[in-house]
Amino acid sequence: MSTGMIVLTVIVAVVIIAAATAPILRGRGRYGGPRLKRRFGPEYERTVALYDGDTTAAERELAERVERHGDLRERPLDPAGPEHYAARWTAVQEHFVQSPRQAVAEADRLLADLAAARGYPDGGRYDEQFAALSVHHADHVDGYRQVHRVARAGARDGLTEAGSGTEEMRTALVGARALFDDLTHPSREHGRHRATHASHSKGS
Questions:
Q1: Which of 2, 41, 112, 201 is deepest in the core (most CB within 10 A)?
Q2: 165: phi > 0 → left, psi -120 to 50 → alpha, else beta; which?
Q3: Sign of the dihedral defined by the CA atoms of residues 23, 25, 30, 31, in that order
Q4: Does the reported pTM lie above 0.85?
C-alpha cells in the first residue's frame, strides 16, 4: 500500500470515529458533571461504582441514556389503569406470604407492564426500559433493578423460600414499591426533575 493510500485510510478512519463519538460528546457537554449528578442522584453514584470509580465512563453511559430517552413523554394510564395495577400489586403482596419467589417474579412482570403502559420501551427489552426509566425516575429506579435481579436469580438458581433468600426478596419488593407509586400516581412524579429542567433552561 502506498503512503498516500495509508494516509487516506487513516483520515477516513478518523472521520468515521469522530462521527460516531460526536453525539456522545455533545451529550456529555450538555448533561455532564454536576447536571448528571443532580438529574440521576443515587443512580449516578451506583453507575460510577459499576465502573469501578471511573467517572468518565459512568457519565458517558448516563449521558447516552439522556440522549436516547430524555425526550420521552409518558402516556397517561387508562382511567381504570391505576385501580387495575393496584389490584395486581395487592396480589403480589398476598402471594409473598406463601411464595416469595413467585411474588417477586410477578412484581417484575408488573413493573415491566406498567412501564410499557406509560410509554416506556417494552419490558421484553429490560435494559432499554430500565435506562429510560432511570432518566425520568432516577430516585426510585433501583427498586426495579433489585426486583429484576432477584427474580432472574430465583428462576436460574431456585432461591429457597426461607432464610436470607426470603429476606433479600422482601427487601427487593419493598424497594420496588416507590417506582410503582411513581408510575401509578402521575401527580406525584417528576417533581425534582421538573425543577432541574427548569433550572437548566434558565442556565442555558
A1: 112
A2: alpha
A3: positive
A4: no
The residue behind cell 432511570 is 134
Instruction: Take residue 1 and report the three cell numbers written for it.
Output: 500500500
Q: What is the pLDDT of residues 112-149, one digit of tens each?
A: 999 999 999 998 899 999 999 999 999 999 999 999 99
CB 143 within 8 A of CB 108: no
Residue type for position 9: T
| Cβ atoms 69, 136 nearer than 8 A | yes
Cα–Cα–Cα angle for 107, 95, 178, rounded to 5 degrees: 35
C-alpha dihedral, 83 to 88 to 90 to 91, nearest 10°: 150
Q: Is 182 left (phi over 0), alpha (psi -120 to 50) or beta?
A: alpha
Q: Which of 94, 137, 95 is nearest to 114 (CA)?
A: 137
Please give the grid coordinates belonging to residue 119: 410509554
pLDDT tens-digit series, residues 23-74: 544 444 455 578 999 999 999 999 999 999 999 999 999 999 999 999 999 9
Domain ranges of the chain: 3-69, 81-193
